[in-house]
Design a protein that fits this description.
Layout: E1 10-18, E2 24-30, E3 38-40, E4 45-47, E5 49-53, E6 56-62, E7 65-66, E8 72-73, E9 78-83, E10 86-88, E11 96-98, E12 102-109, E13 112-118, H1 128-140, E14 146-152, H2 161-173, E15 179-183, E16 195-198, H3 202-210, E17 211-216, E18 231-234, H4 253-263, E19 268-271, H5 274-284, E20 289-292, H6 300-303, H7 306-313, E21 320-324, H8 341-348, E22 352-356, E23 374-376, H9 383-389, E24 392-395, H10 400-404, E25 411-414, H11 418-425, H12 432-435, E26 440-441, H13 444-452, H14 454-460, H15 462-472, H16 480-490
Parallel strand pairs: 1-10, 14-15, 14-17, 15-16, 17-18, 18-19, 19-20, 21-22, 21-24, 22-23, 24-25, 25-26
Antiparallel strand pairs: 1-2, 2-6, 3-4, 3-9, 5-6, 7-8, 9-13, 11-12, 12-13
Helix pairs in contact: 2-16, 7-9
Length: about 500
């Protein structure tokens, strides 16, 4: 097959959708076949199997994908395009529900074929009208309480963070209690033994109304009504350097009221440390129960299997792993790579691999970085596993700094926009430069020099690192999830 120049459009005259055990798009065209063809989304890539014969070529694109060595699942929801682009003279198949997998729509944008995937809600569930009916029923119904737990992490984008660690602990302590996970679509893998609930499905509404315990790490959002039999455990997703909620300057009335409404739904707030407790109470004007038990998601850093994670990512034992995990920018939510990791890793040399991990807010708007020596792990479900295998962390203002310090490994702060972020975008609760457990730099060349001399950099920060851990990680001892679940059971929240 002859390779085509990048961006060269191809024309196909056949496009069909098959919906067997492995749903697929089958394409056909005349002339030169593409050497490589793939259906590409922002965080996922579905390669085609291309065959050519007698002046025609055919391509089959399986519509299931295995991510990070896991089971084959539906593609994450969103719009996908072909690379190279495909035009068509064929009649496009109608939108279709592939039960349990996805809804698929095929259309064209400026003549190029575009594919959209969405959650596989039924016809009685999909769409604004049907959702309005289900929500009205949810608000009006007095559900009988069920001794089950509803988990949600980052709005159902994955099963991760503190809720995942609490799921694991509950499965050990009380395997008889059903565990449900709210997921945005069928691409999300949930823990073994738990039950996935598509957001907006009839069952999702019912369980949210009947579960005795709801465990979340972000806002519940508008579609929630508090019930007398329910407790909401807000685990949040990090100790904070940057200001949040009501602490932010210039906050307008509408987000202020939304913040107050949201925090009124919480019965228990989980805190990593006493510093975070004080900030939470001030930033949310929160007067409810706070459980200061350490962070369950950090238990893995003391108990996990680093070799297994390295193998999953295909990283050799003798390769040094750098985790670059910046926070998101309010004014550029789709931008992650402030370091230029491709050039950075090339300059470091072949002994290193850089993992780039965007904030959860960048998962949907952002796109993966593809470069030698770089693995984009923004869509990797559990960031704690990445902490486990990283030899050092590079961050800026992200809360990952308070989790990674549990490992005792080097932390580097790359902050090229420090003044703007601190003075304009968000503001800080404390002076990072004064207490940082590692060097704070703005120049990538200086960062490279410091990383190559890690031992020397570490020696300069021994006392600061120890003070940091004493302040922020006093209860991160590998047993936080166990303590929280024991307390839930002891206080009768679950029967």
């Amino acid at each position: 097959m002859i390779a085509l120049p990048a961006g060269t459009p191809l024309t196909i005259d056949v496009i069909t959708l098959t919906t067997g055990d492995i749903p697929a798009l089958v394409l056909g065209g005349v002339g030169t076949a593409p050497s490589v063809l793939a259906l590409v989304g922002s965080r996922s890539r579905l390669p085609a199997i291309v065959e050519a014969s007698s002046g025609r070529w055919n391509a089959t694109v399986p519509l299931l994908v295995s991510r990070w060595g896991g089971a084959e699942m539906a593609p994450p929801s969103g719009r996908y395009r072909f690379e190279p682009p495909l035009n068509t003279t064929a009649t496009l198949p109608e939108g279709h529900l592939v039960s349990g997998r996805f809804r698929i729509d095929i259309d064209t944008i400026e003549r190029a074929i575009a594919i959209s995937f969405a959650a596989p809600l039924t016809d009685a569930e999909a769409g604004k009208v049907q959702q309005a009916k289900l929500e009205a029923n949810y608000l009006a119904t007095e559900y009988p309480p069920q001794n089950v737990v509803f988990f949600e992490s980052f709005y159902g984008q994955n099963a991760s963070c503190n809720p995942l660690a609490l799921d694991r602990a509950l499965a050990i302590a009380r395997p008889d209690i059903p565990r449900y996970w709210g997921v945005r679509d069928a691409s999300v893998i949930v823990p073994e033994g738990s039950i996935a609930l598509l957001e907006g499905s009839e069952e999702w509404w019912r369980i949210r109304g009947s579960a005795r315990l709801i465990v979340i790490n972000d806002w519940l959002r508008n579609r929630y009504r508090k019930r007398r039999h329910q407790k909401v455990l807000q685990t949040w997703h990090g100790t904070m350097l940057k200001k949040l909620a009501l602490s932010r300057s210039g906050l307008r009335l509408r987000p202020t009221l939304a913040t107050l409404r949201e925090r009124s739904r919480w019965n228990i707030l989980l805190s990593q440390n006493h510093y975070a407790t004080r900030i939470f109470r001030r930033a949310y004007l929160y007067t409810g129960a706070v459980w200061e038990e350490g962070y369950p998601r950090d238990d893995l850093l003391l108990t996990g299997n680093a070799a297994a994670v390295r193998a999953k990512l295909g990283i050799a034992d003798d390769t040094k792993v750098l985790l670059y995990a910046p926070t998101w920018r309010d004014d550029r939510p789709d931008h992650v790579d402030h370091l230029d990791v491709s050039k950075f890793t090339e300059q470091l040399g072949c002994d290193y691999v850089t993992l780039i991990r965007g904030h959860s807010r960048t998962l949907q708007p952002g796109t993966d970085v593809y470069a030698g020596g770089v693995i984009d792990v923004t869509s990797y479900p559990d960031v704690s596993e990445l902490f486990l295998i990283a030899d050092a962390l590079i961050t800026d203002y992200s809360s990952v700094m308070f989790d990674f310090s549990v490992t005792g490994k080097p932390i580097f702060f790359f902050t090229p926009d420090l003044d703007r972020y601190r003075e304009v975008l968000r503001g800080f609760y404390f002076d990072l430069i004064a207490v940082a457990p590692g060097p704070v730099v703005r120049d990538p060349h200086e960062l490279i020099r410091l990383i190559r001399a890690q031992d020397g950099a570490g020696e300069q920060f021994v006392q600061k690192y120890a003070a940091w851990r004493a302040r922020f990680n006093p209860r991160d001892d590998g047993k936080a999830a166990e303590r929280v679940i024991a307390r839930v059971l002891r206080e009768g929240i679950l029967k």
